[in-house]
Amino acid sequence: MQKATLLILLLLLNLTKTYCQEESEIIAHYIKDHPVQSSIYLVRNDSVLADINSDRVMPLASTVKILIAIEYAKQVSKGIINPQEMIDSTELDHYYIPFTDGGAQPNWLKSMQQKQVIQGGKIPLVEVAKGMIKYSSNANTEYLIERLGWKISMLIFSKWV
User: What span, in angstroms and rounded, lies between the C-alpha atoms of 159 and 58?
Assistant: First the structure.
């Protein structure tokens, strides 16, 4: 029993190490390719391993999605955008970066297909906004930032950052 438990533990540790190495390579490439949008401060055993833009104020990961959802709701209530407008689902593909969202985008799309929300390759804008929040879809977030307007998005960020 103890040998089996130890073997399973070692296997899990090895898988975790391999997964973390792959993830760290993805993160390193992202930071290299997107230095303005990236920030990291990594410390291990009191030694700083990475310090890139750590002094720069930036929104915390997905918390910005709440602000975008608020702006979306404001624009819907003012009649600026129509939540039932049908969006070509291939348009969202332009904002999707595979393997960077923990499967959020594929899972959201699968859910939309299962619920038969996608009609003729199109999906209601309201479902895009819901997917941004419920699934934490980065692609939907980026689409909405552009859709809501860059100036408006900058106002949102400047109020909270």
Answer: 12
pLDDT tens, residue by residue, 44-101 = 899 988 888 888 877 676 888 888 898 899 899 999 999 999 999 999 999 998 888 8
Separation CA 62–CA 136 (nearest Å): 7
Are 39 and 56 contacting, i.e. CB atoms less than 8 angstroms apart?
Answer: yes
The structure tokens 């950052």 sit at: 161
pTM over 0.90: no
* CB within 8 Å of 42: residues ≥ 6 apart: 48, 49, 50, 51
Secondary structure (H, E, C), the chain? CHHHHHHHHHHHHHHHHHHHHHHHHHHHHHHHHCHHHCCEEEEECCEEEEEECCCCCCCCHHHHHHHHHHHHHHHHHCCCCCCCCEEEHHHHHCCCCCCCCCCHHHHHHHHHHHCCCCECCEEEHHHHHHHHHHCCCHHHHHHHHHHHCHHHHHHHHHHHC
Query: What are the tens digits of pLDDT across the range 22-54?
Result: 566 777 777 788 777 778 888 889 998 888 888
Backbone φ and ψ for 36, nearest 5 degrees, come out as: -70, -30
In the structure encoding, which two tokens stand for residue 83, read together? 């939540």
